[in-house]
Specification:
The chain is mainly beta and about 650 residues long. About 15% of the residues lie in helices and about 40% in strands. The strands form seven sheets. It has a 21-stranded antiparallel β-sheet that branches. β7 and β8 form a beta hairpin.
Length: about 650
Amino acid sequence: MKILSSCLLPLFFVFASCYAQGADTLKVYSPSNKTCVKVWMAKQLSYSVTHNKKVVIETSVIDLELANGRSLSQNTTVKSSSVKKIVNQIISPVPEKRKIIPDIYNQLLLSFKQPYTVEFRAYDDGVAYRISTAFKDSIIIKNEVAEFNFPGEPLAYFPEIPYKDSLDMFQTSFEDLYVLKKISDFPKTSIAYSPVLIVPASNPKIALTESSLEDYPGMFFTGTGSSKLKGVFARYPLEEKIAWALYSQRRVAKRADYIAKTKGNRSFPWRVIMISEQDKDLPNNDLVYRLASPSRVADVSWIKPGNITDEWIINVNLFNVPFKSGVNTASYKYYIDFARRFGFDRIMMDAGWSDNNDLMKVNPDINMDTLVAYAKEKGVKIAMWTLALTLDRQLDSALNQFNKWGVDFIMTDFIDRDDQKAVNFHYRVAKACADHKIMVMYHGSYPPKGFNRTYPNAVAREAVLGSEYNIWSDKVSPDHDVLLPFTRMLAGPLDYEPGILNNVNKKSFRSIEGHVMSQGTRGHQAAMVVVYDSPIQFFSGNPSQGWLEPKYMELLGSIPTTWDETVIVEAKVGEHIITARKNNQNWYAGGITGWKEQDAIVKLNFIDNGTYKATICRDGINADKYGTDYVIESFRVKKNDEVKIHLAPGGGFLLKLEKE
């Protein structure tokens, strides 16, 4: 990740009188002057945010409390303060939205007499702040005070975790539905992980999350009985136990009365407040990436994500084959042939290729030497699933073995925590994988929150209720799918794993293991490979069914996963989204709707001059009853042409535009 330019321009520092805050209020404006952060020091450090002169965050408190009784609020005397304009440009080695990312903001830096500093950044699309300390010795953090106080009675979308007696609420897979309710109705006994999307009576909408989470627990939110949310954090795990099962993991048996033990001279995570005047601005916001710590991987030339197949969701339930399907050599050779035919870069060998608790103990039905040689002959890579507990224990030997097999991508699963120890596990594994030139994806884990900038080989993260839930529940619906670009995706790329080929309407859906269905249409499934940010995009459908639909699979296999530019053509939270992305000279567009059908007009004002061959997969005339009904057709278009598309209930479309 290269910083092309840096411009530090002193700005006039404003001392403003304000009845609500006091005569010592400090201000910093965004570059366009639309957004203003006001900061003042009374008994506690407080701030508020306005956008277009409208208050979007009312008086809210910031503090960091240490176990020895010291805190920022003990002495709020400012030693020095400054405002600067920063003009940077980031080049992303794994561009999820765009390759060149402008990073322009105004910075307010406050240094206190005690060894604390607080930095505020005002962007045109949001605000962020972070606390830094300069203690000589290590410190124990008792608590962090992070308040977000909203005017009026706004609604918010929460991934809510309700209190359950005797269970550790912070032990979660981060795979929940987003529920819409008033902030004042969010219980004090529940927590929600970020991002959380706030929906006032009128725009702008506000999203809360964090960035640069390192050696520190992740921030959750809880209710206060008012329109104020406050951050809460998993306490430090003092004791852990191994929960032995098919997928074993470390679970917390006892937590401390503090949240972190860490070095005293450091910066803490960014608290991020995204501000969106229009719904379509949200999915294109990359503020979390901009705030993240720069890459720690010097050579990124080997990081080559792409598309990949997976067999776990369909339980390797192949048909029209001359062998017994299952987790065996013949089935994986079949997947390699499928990937080769339809343009997929890799196949995943998911859970079952080895003993879950011993990566050196390969399933006796699999001959790895045969598969490695066969994949190399076909020009297809092999990727491996691992259990996080096992990978942690066998990290060096496992990565060495993966290198011998030519594996350049692994998944590790069932972490289900973001306390300080769990967060540090992610960094340790990502660094080890980078040293071995292996990409990694975390499942059963929290959203990336900028981790993908710091370790670009960590190409995506799950932390989403995605395709796998079709196996055992009806939670995954088009209404849920269309919320994700405005909620979960704001914290970084997500691994939803679309591509289910058995598509049905709400009435026909059933959860059937091995014969997995998806709610909504085939066009909806196809569109998600463009709509969702994910540099490594999984195809989770049944390849035996895919062989019967070569035109569809050829189209799906030809879609890139990294992008030079992204444009959100049209969007409304919870209803629909149309996303267009550029890769080299070609453009790709995807659109999805919830259960409400839509008529879309895609004006091609984003493409370059010249003629394009357009190939579209759209809902067929009977897709409302038979979700697998789709049409693939080709035609030619030029700049500013309009493409009219009808989206069935739960529908979607995938449009490929090839420059001629």
